[in-house]
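Exercise 3.2. Students should predict the tertiary structure of the chain below and write it as structure tokens, then compare their answer with the key that follows.

Predict this chain's 3D structure.
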Amino acid sequence: MKFFTQVRCGAAALAASLALAVAPASAETTVNMYYPVAVGGPITKIIDKMVADFSAANPDIKVNPIYSGSYQDTITKVVTALKGGNAPEFAVILSTDMFTLIDEDAIVPFEELVSDADKAWLDGFYPGFMLNSRTGGKTWGIPFQRSTIVQYWNKDAFKEAGLDPDVAPKTWDEMVAAAEKLTKRDTSGNVTRWGVQIPSSGFPYWLFQALTTQNDVILANEAGTKVTYDDPRVVEALQFWVDLSKKYKVHPQGIVEWGTTPKDFFEGKVAMMWTTTGNLTNVRNNAPFPFGVAMLPAKVRGGSPTGGGNFYVFKNASPEQRKAALAFIKWATAPEQAAAWSIATGYVAVTPAAWETEAMKKYVAEFPAAAVARDQLDVAVAELSTHDNQRVTKALNDGLQAALTGAKEPGQAMKDAQAEADRVLRPFQ
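Answer key:
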């Protein structure tokens, strides 16, 4: 997921906090938690409320949330803190940074933290989310704010274009055909509304991985030591993305901003957008028109990468601090709390049990779109994650931006990205 700080929901959605019985770690055990969001705003209020509710149920544990900026900021600060010997006791960091944290010898596998009685909890998460949480037979991260990419569409725009407002495109061909009807131009030929918009800043590799998944190719092996950037099916997926603007002329040219895409949608500048389900509450609260949410369209197959952040516990934590961090993580991911978090933010509740709570059943009955990202987990794949992940991902992002701006043809862009990724990954092969 990608984390989106414009979620607009009061912390009151978390009022039904879980009174989960957790044995106190010790008297006044204090743990610091890095959390990836800038200080201030709705999300910090929600996290602060969670921490307060947890403290009320566990008065012997003090959790200090430290708001650490973006995901990129957070992993940078964590690695810096590790080298300085003052890392936090636990943190929410991208699931794709798992290999980086393992290579830094920074984190503890949860099998070393849990009791036999906790094994059911450890195995209770959606398998799709565990693809970026486990490697080498060990569980390194616990899913928390997790997501898939979904498509949103403006039902009024569909109706105006003569399309069924209640039916989203189910294939690439259907999406192009709909986008051609939805794209509007003024008398001078200037576009006043694009048919479709797929962001290419912020997390370009993630949005692109949706296209490669749909073209039935996986970008990295499970060991995180090899990538397939120059696979012909990858090049074909990139050519399609380029063609949306260059050939079909239904998509903005160049780089499309991640952060402003929802705003463009609200303002009627785009009729269909691809973005994280973590934007669901934001769209629900701010779209001035009826909208739909659907799984992404398919080509060879359907699918989306998962995304978002996991909880990690750091080796520098004392035994008592590890116990306290685990207590909070178990509390935050328990069914009632996971349901409340999902309702407040739009992220996917990470366990099937959360969807069986009365609160979640009521929410889905009132707002069926909330279940789309969960249902898409059946065809989801692991988000791109490798050793030295940031450099390997940067190689792909650079190639994508070169192709989307017209600086390179897709085939050359992916050939160059592959060469750079191979160079970075050679020590791990």
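Discussion points: Confidence is low (pLDDT under 50) at residues 1-26. The first strand starts at residue 29 and ends at 35.
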